[in-house]
Amino acid sequence: MKVTQLDCLCVILLHLLHTAGSERFEVLGPTDLIVAVAGDDIVLPCYLKPSISAEDMTVDWLNLDFKDDRVFRYQNQRIIRDDQIPSYIGRTSLFEEELWRGNTSLKLTRVQGTDEGHYKCLIQSKSWYDDFTIQVLVEAVGSKPVVSIEGHREGGMGLLCESEGWHPQPELVWLDSKGVHLSAGPPETHRDVKGFYTVKQHVIVQETNTNRFTCRVQQSRINEKMETEVHLPSELFYTTPWRMTFIVLCCLGAITVIGLALAIYCILNKKDEIRKEKDDLWEKNHYLKESFYDITVQREILTSQLDFVNTNWSPDVETIRRHAVNVILDPDTAHCNLILSEDGKQVRHGELNQILSDNVNRFSNWSSVLGNVGFSGKVYYEVKVEEKTEWTLGVVIQSINRNESFRPIPNKGAWTVELKNGEYTAHADSPVTFTLREEPLKVGVFVDYEKGQVSFFNVEARSHIYSFTGCTFTKKLYPFFNPGGSDSVSLVICPVDATD
Ligand SMILES: *[C@@H]1O[C@H](CO)[C@@H](O)[C@H](O)[C@H]1NC(C)=O
């Protein structure tokens, strides 16, 4: 068979036509934009016309809002994950089983705010390419606004409204109960990584009739709105003074409590001090009373002594000495510690305990001895006490208790003066203690039975020592001698020489 030139040309043309026909294609998609609800899965349609296989072609999905990177790429029969926009990772796929039909639609899962935009479906073969662009809108209705009370602000009540999860960006408005817009602070908008919007806005509201306020968040493109109404109790508006009052009261209360505590502390302290002072004073008072009593007693005694001296005693000792009697000690009455001279004129303290005859008359309470004769008239005798540091002289009734320990006082039948520890004590019913300017070397004892007086004199100085006055004697009086235990010097009964 002969091949003509025309035939050849026809074959070439046919071949060219075939080749051209197999290489050329159109990329098509939907003419309307695609509205995606956030969170849904969507398909972005794209296909070849004629419906030739795209298996050996390169399929690119681009989001035109992102410059360099891709949403998705299929090339060399593989999915190319390099250079993928991070927000699309894991959410995109082709229907690979549909590629042979020229179906290059993209499946996008879990739509989010950032997905909104213009998508280009670009398909390239070795010798041809074409593309188609689809617009995708994302709609997301946010959360119901949350209103929080922020407290007192600039003379009103501060409120904050917040709503999240919107797309596209919504508008937030504050309204009063009549629907009138309230002037509020600048709106604050935040877009999260998924492209959803959070809006919030502060407002300061004044008290109204209703105290009802509404926060409305609206998105006109998607024709959605969400609102929250709050009702503020009117007391809330008065909490400033209340709070102030409360704070002031608290402060006052605290101050009062502190003050009271201090006061109580002080008072208690003071009270203690006062109590101590009172105790001290009481003690002092007591002491003073006692002292005063003592002084009173002593004054009385001294007064009576002075009276006596002035009225009864003349410096003429000689008169008294005329009543001198011869006193001899009665050894039967002598305490076992005492040592008497043989003439019965001296007595001293001896350390030894003498074994003496049992005698009811003997002193066992005091180391004492009596004169052997009792008197009921005027009596005078003198006793040498020179160098002695301790003695007791005077007169006692015969029946004086000689066994028990007691102070020898008039009440018990004793009128005595004692020297001990450098002090003289007249054993009156209340003891009278005194010191003498001149220590007597010889003591004269004078008794006026009728007058009821017992007087003691410093013989050398011719001075008065002490007198018991106003006594009532009903029994005979016996001279009483106690040489004391602190020295062993004798008490010596001296002969009285009227001319001495
Ligand atoms: C592509 O394939 C998917 C899955 O079968 C289908 O939903 C879609 O409608 C197809 N698109 C076109 C343009 O054929």
Strand order of the largest sheet: 19-20-31-22-27-28-29
Could you please say which CATH topology of the largest domain applies here?
Jelly Rolls
Count the domains: 4
List the ions, cofactors and other small molecules found in this model.
2-acetamido-2-deoxy-beta-D-glucopyranose
Name of the level-1 CATH class of the largest domain: Mainly Beta
User: What's the CATH H-level superfamily name of the largest domain?
Assistant: SPRY domain
Report helical residue fraction: 10-25%
Looking at the structure, what is the overall shape? rod-shaped
- Total strand count, please? 31
| Poorly predicted parts | 10-21
Largest sheet: number of strands, sense, barrel closure = 7 strands, antiparallel
Q: Specify Rg, calculated over alpha carbons.
A: 70 Å
**CATH architecture designation of the largest domain:** Sandwich
Would you tell me the overall average pLDDT? 86
Domain B30.2/SPRY: 307-500
Signal peptide: 1-22
Protein name: Butyrophilin subfamily 2 member A1 isoform X1
Organism: Salmo salar
